[in-house]
Write a structure and sequence with these properties.
about 75% helix, about 450 residues, mainly alpha, globular, single chain
């Protein structure tokens, strides 16, 4: 009785503190405190900690290395270069800019990961929109749609989200198999989300960017990833880049793409993605050191290490709440649906993980959902199909509330720094209209794709 009571208390306390974040409390602190209380309560053993540490460790290293690569590209001015390019492509059309921003968000998550894309891209987008003369309320459609697409775009590739990587390891699924089963349907699902965002926001989009830019002169803003945790000045230069600059930016992006491909190729030859990611990041850091004379220490300081501790703590919290009865109850509830066929299996697991994610974050939700599946003794194929529902719920269904994803919490924190205000009510007013249809569409697409390629 004591174990159950303390476990539930620890779980509730952790979630409340993460949502509340008094005095800007780092989200990793309540997750680690909650994890410690789970161990004290006895709902998580030391043996469990060792297994969780093993599962979380490699995935965390991969994600941290990828974020470090994104930070190096930011210091090279690559994302500023891309933002300039988007403005030129938009040709003073706010509608075209909306679609280009969504495309950039999609590609950034596919090439890096959702947390890194949010951290890097959001400040640059705010600066870009302010330079174009958009007021805070005019920026919301662009920023919110970009954030939703950014986070949902972590579903197509296992290496785009730390929770995906961790759970993939737990169920023994390769990156190649994961991508073969979900890349196409989830990518189409992200496109559905972008279209729904446009339908919802189309009347609020700025039509003439030139007029806004001429009538409003923005104040100089700063980038929150500057040296020594200060705000480093960032200003978008809209002049046409030189051929030398274009060539350099292209080479950098091709290198990053090569590392992304190497994650999959290396995994097929038994090379851990974490090793490939670390080597790729190290080469990029040395490249920058030689070109700019800047040591890697600033990147080490800027890298959000708290993501690693947050992930570990939340997985311990998730394991604790699962061990005191939630897992057994979920097995009882979901077993008939999973036994009912692939469609009901995907739909049931997606719904369950979506609900859990939106209530207490996708880290413990996906942990619970994954442990739930591994305890059912399913065949490899049935396990993988049911797991696809977990990913849909964790990466897309979790967008319904701000608590659903760490990336969303980071996004709202960055907006607050830049005095762009969006309340949880405003956020939910949008997501309640676009997220459920996207989840349903992705479930149907996923089932159809699995039937198509596996019969």
């Amino acid at each position: 009785m004591f174990t159950t009571a303390l476990t539930i208390f620890s779980f509730v306390m952790t979630i409340v503190l993460i949502m509340w974040r008094p005095k800007g409390l780092d989200v990793s602190i309540p997750s680690l405190v909650g994890a410690a209380l789970m161990v004290i309560a006895g709902s998580v053993s030391l043996a469990d900690l060792k297994v969780i540490g093993s599962d979380v460790g490699g995935a965390s290293v991969t994600i941290m290395a990828t974020i470090a690569m994104a930070l190096v590209l930011e210091s090279f001015g690559v994302f500023q270069f891309v933002a300039d390019f988007l403005v030129r492509l938009a040709k003073n059309s706010g509608v075209r800019l909306f679609w280009y921003i969504n495309l950039m968000s999609l590609l950034m998550t596919l090439v890096f990961n959702n947390d890194g894309a949010i951290i890097i891209a959001t400040p640059i987008l705010i600066i870009l929109l302010r330079k174009l003369g958009l007021k805070p309320h005019q920026q919301i459609p662009y920023l919110l749609s970009a954030a939703l697409v950014d986070t949902a775009a972590s579903a197509p590739l296992g290496v785009s989200n730390i929770v995906n990587l961790i759970s993939i390891k737990i169920i023994g699924m390769s990156l190649a198999t994961y991508s073969a089963m979900i890349f196409v349907p989830s990518l189409i699902g992200v496109c559905v989300l972008a279209v729904l965002n446009y339908v919802l926001f189309r009347k609020k989009l700025v039509t003439d960017l030139k007029q806004n830019r001429m009538s409003n002169k923005p104040k100089p803003r700063c980038h929150p990833l500057g040296p020594n945790n200060e705000m480093a000045t960032t200003d978008l230069q809209l002049e046409t880049p030189s051929k030398k600059q274009k060539r350099f930016m292209t080479n950098i992006l091709l290198y990053v793409l090569a590392i992304r491909v190497a994650l999959f190729v290396g995994a097929d030859f038994g090379v851990s993605p974490s090793v490939t990611a670390v080597v790729g990041a190290a080469i990029l850091l040395i490249w920058r050191w030689i070109k700019m004379g800047t040591s890697p220490m600033d990147i080490l300081r800027k890298t959000p290490w708290h993501v690693l501790f947050f992930a570990f703590g939340m997985y311990v919290v998730g394991a604790g709440i699962a061990n005191v009865g939630l897992n057994s109850w979920l097995v009882h509830v979901l077993q008939p649906f999973i036994a009912g066929g692939w469609f009901s299996s995907i739909a049931a697991t997606a719904t369950a993980v979506s609900i859990m994610s939106d209530i207490f974050n996708n880290h413990p939700a996906l942990m619970i959902g994954t442990l739930n599946l591994t305890s059912m003794h399913l065949s490899p194929m049935d396990l993988h199909v049911a797991y696809l529902g977990n990913i849909i719920g964790s990466d897309i269904g979790s967008l319904l509330t701000p608590i659903g994803l760490l990336a969303t919490l980071i996004w709202m924190f960055v907006l607050k720094q830049y005095k762009v205000h969006i309340s949880w009510r405003q956020y939910f007013r949008v997501t309640s209209l676009v997220v459920p249809p996207t989840v349903i569409a992705t479930i149907v697409l996923c089932y159809g794709w699995i039937r198509l390629i596996y019969g």
